[in-house]
Design a protein that fits this description.
By secondary structure, the protein is α/β, with parallel strands linked by helices. Helices cover 37% and strands 13% of the residues. The strands form 2 sheets. It has a 4-stranded parallel β-sheet with strand order 2-1-3-4, sandwiched between helices. Strands 5-6-7 form a 3-stranded antiparallel β-sheet, with no helix packed on it. The longest helix has 19 residues, at 133-151. The two termini are 30 Å apart.
């Protein structure tokens, strides 16, 4: 399989799967025929909340809660590898590449430049990523989900952090 395609109702899920390092295309506009076409052409698993879609290679996402959605995908397919986290652009789904610190000067806020040494670049949109507090919080949330999956239970604290 070559990753996922998420339907228009699953934008947040698509974003979080990308943060986890999965290859995910997000279809902004609702278009069943288009969704199926891309899934077939690129051999992608359809993630959908649309009960009218029927396809061999799809996952019907049951919950409306983001964390439960992420958990369902991780449970059904494989959870991300440690090294894959934050390996893709959240906007473009493109694989990030390392960019030298001297080359980001002036492209990130000065306090960020001062505080960090490692930067990643999206070759497609030019967005620069670094391991700031936002990054750390996202990793923490992902790890929480992974721990709960490993334990095989569903804790209420995961549900509270839907936003
Ligand atoms: Zn990008």
């Amino acid at each position: 399989m070559n990753g996922f395609i998420a339907d228009s109702m699953l934008g947040k899920l698509a974003k979080w799967l990308k943060i986890a390092g999965h290859d995910v295309i997000y279809q902004k506009e609702s278009n069943r025929a288009g969704l199926l076409k891309i899934a077939q052409k690129e051999n992608r698993i359809i993630l959908t909340r649309d009960t009218h879609i029927s396809y061999d290679n799809m996952l019907f996402v049951e919950s409306e809660m983001l964390w439960e959605q992420v958990e369902q995908v991780f449970r059904n397919y494989r959870a991300p590898h440690e090294k894959r986290k934050f390996s893709r652009c959240i906007l473009c789904n493109e694989e990030l590449v390392i960019i030298e610190k001297k080359n980001v000067k002036g492209k990130v806020p000065p306090y960020v430049f001062k505080a960090h040494d490692n930067f990643l670049l999206c070759p497609s949109c030019g967005r620069i990523y670094w391991e700031g507090s936002h990054y750390k919080n996202m990793i923490k949330m992902l790890d929480k989900i992974l721990v709960s999956i490993n334990r095989g239970d569903r804790r209420d604290e995961n549900r509270r952090e839907t936003q």
